[in-house]
Amino acid sequence: MGTLGAGESVALTGQDPALTGVMVAMGWTVESAMGPQPEPVPLAILCGDDGRALTPEHLVFFNQLTTASPGVAFAAPDSGAAAAGRPADAEQVDVDFSQVPPDVARIAFVTYIDPEVRGSGSFARVEGLHLRVVRPDGSELVRFDASPANPEEAQAVVCGELYRYEDGWAFRALGRTYENGLAGVGAEFGLDV
């Protein structure tokens, strides 16, 4: 299916009706330098038809590895990436389509700079921010380079989303940025962060 640009989408199960789930992997590299390093953090938000989080428990992140509903959970990092000659993913989220409840219309994948670890920061020193959608066998379906156009101003990026399409699932590349970090993400998705 290849590489997508911002705003492009692909019908995952439309092209592969036997697809029962995917792994969504997010990755980046932080440019080393003196002083505080930015701390990128991935987050998956399970949303209803209105595009807002169903509840605060419908999130997957480092403190909540699974959601209140089944079907979406953090996976173990890809330890074999370097040996295979490809960049390692920083985090991976498994999505089992058959287990995702019907009230979940979309799953948004966000990366933000954690202000609590080393103070407020931006994506200025974060390179190669990407999102990959991968089959259960490990083969890549689609990739999106989500690096922000103005990294000095971006504190959070909605990289992309899985969404229900016809009788299956599709993926849309987004790359939407927020200068106000988690506060902007929370306002859009109806979360008190």
3D architecture notes:
By secondary structure, the chain is mainly β. The chain has a single domain, classed as sav2460 like domains (Lipoxygenase-1, Sandwich), CATH 2.60.60. The protein has 3 helices and 12 strands. The strands form 2 sheets. A 6-stranded mixed beta sheet has the order 1-10-9-3-7-6, with no helix packed on it. The chain has a 6-stranded antiparallel beta sheet with strand order 2-12-11-8-4-5. β9 and β10 form a beta hairpin. The radius of gyration is 16 Å and the shape is globular. The model has no long low-confidence stretch (mean pLDDT 88).
Task: Summarize the helix and strand pattern as letters.
Answer: EEHEEEEEEHEEEEH
Approximately how much helix is present in the residues? under 10%
Reported CATH architecture = Sandwich
Strand content: 35-45%
The CATH fourth-level homologous superfamily = sav2460 like domains
What is CATH's topology name? Lipoxygenase-1
**Order of strands in the sheet with the most strands?**
1-10-9-3-7-6
Gyration radius, in Å = 16 Å
* Largest sheet composition: 6 strands, mixed
The secondary-structure class comes to mainly beta
List how many beta strands DSSP finds. 12
Gap from first CA to last CA? 35 Å
Query: Kindly state the mean pLDDT as a whole number?
Result: 88
Give the C-level CATH assignment. Answer: Mainly Beta
Low-confidence stretches: none
**Count the helices. How many?**
3
Shape: globular
Count up the domains: 1
